[in-house]
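Recall from the previous lesson that a structure prediction takes nothing but the amino acid sequence as input. Here we apply that procedure to 60S ribosomal export protein NMD3 from Papaver somniferum. The sequence below is the only information supplied.
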Amino acid sequence: MAVVESGMFRIQHTVGTILCCKCGILMPQNAANMCVKCLRAEVDITEGLQKNVIIMYCPECNSYLQPPRTWMKCELESKELLTFCVKRLKNLSKVRLTHAEFIWTEPHSKRIKVKIGVQKEVLNGVVLEQAYLVEYVVQDHLCESCSRIAANPDQWIASVQLRQHVPHRRTFFYLEQLILKHNAALHAIKIKQMDHGIDFFFANRSHALKFVDFVGKVCPIKSRNDKQLVSHDEKSSTYNYKYTFSVEICPICREDLICLPPKTALSLGNLGPLVLCTKVSDSIALLDPLTLRMSYMVADQYWRMPFKTLLSSRQLVEYIVLDVEPMISEVNVGGTTYALADVQVARVSDFGKNDLIFNIRTHLGHLLNPGDYALGYDLYGANIDITYKGLVIPDAILIKKSYEEKRLKKRGKPRAWKLKFMNMEVDNSNRKLDEEKMNTEIEEFLKILEENPEMALNISLHHNEEYQPSEMTEADDDGLLPLSDARWS
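The prediction returns the following tokens.
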């Protein structure tokens, strides 16, 4: 049939059909003159391909053996494990791989099933596609490092001793979450919780050096290292050492009140001298709450001229805000919003005892309203020694808004999120008292995360299965904490 198109003739072709030479059904013509069903019955392109494979698995470190000696850490049904399984197949180069996917099996069955799709050219150039199932038998076998640890748990080469001389463990809780998020302690063969810190043990010195480098990027530290001779072979002139890295974390923590030494204040552009620590990373962020001036101090600068805190978060006092008079509008200082204001406050503990009222200046003018509660340092009643000439010490310095009243409404209800912690050995004699103290400090750390969502962005929060959202949560969202359950449900 001829069709006229744009003044020219175009011949319309029709696809012919023939009978299959095997079963005789009507089908489109192909080079083999056979239908797909008969072609698959005649030719099996998966013949000679592996259908069963044995793989070695280390149950201690969750890794698989890539012959001859490489161990790969993979999770079940992950892309890495699928790639590993496909690479273990031999003679796969004879066909063309089209797709691969896992077939679900019970995790305890020690069987991994993968569906493989392949293509191959057969019988006069006809391309046939076929899928087949490969079963991987998982056999447990400890890797070299895990077998050494099982034989002798104290067989370590390098240890990193993290220490911070402060009366709380908030820094270590936060550092632990950063280590888990970035998998920084992947090669640690043992982790032990000590009185003022954590000890990490490694089977390789390079792993310990890498870990110390990671800690130095997330908090200001100073470190020193030493080595001890374990054995010496005179014939081969080889030496075996054990390495110890002593890492001290800066004792300055978030929300601490600091009175800068004169030389330090001068080097920071006459900052303060009464300043607040607002953030600790690889540097220390110091804010003057009376002028909103901020300066950063790197680790080397701090350790050249170290100083201690004047008052720590353990000494915070609760105040009630009576009146607020804003001075300036909100300004952004170091990525955080502040606003100066003159406020009238009174200590909650003074109610019913005296009528003592303090008129102070604060950097929290954008958050506080009359009737709110705030936490701050009581310089009026504190026993402190400041030798600055001409320095007028305020009666109080507010640190943050208090959400305790709102927490009382949610008491007993689980949070929508939770944290995971490292598996650490604890060596303490008074275990019961230590457990109670640890649970109290963990709860305080969770409250800090609720009040500071910017800190929660740096760590991994996991869904809490025990959490059940309430119908009143959305309606009462304005009264919840900054990191509210409504925003995480």
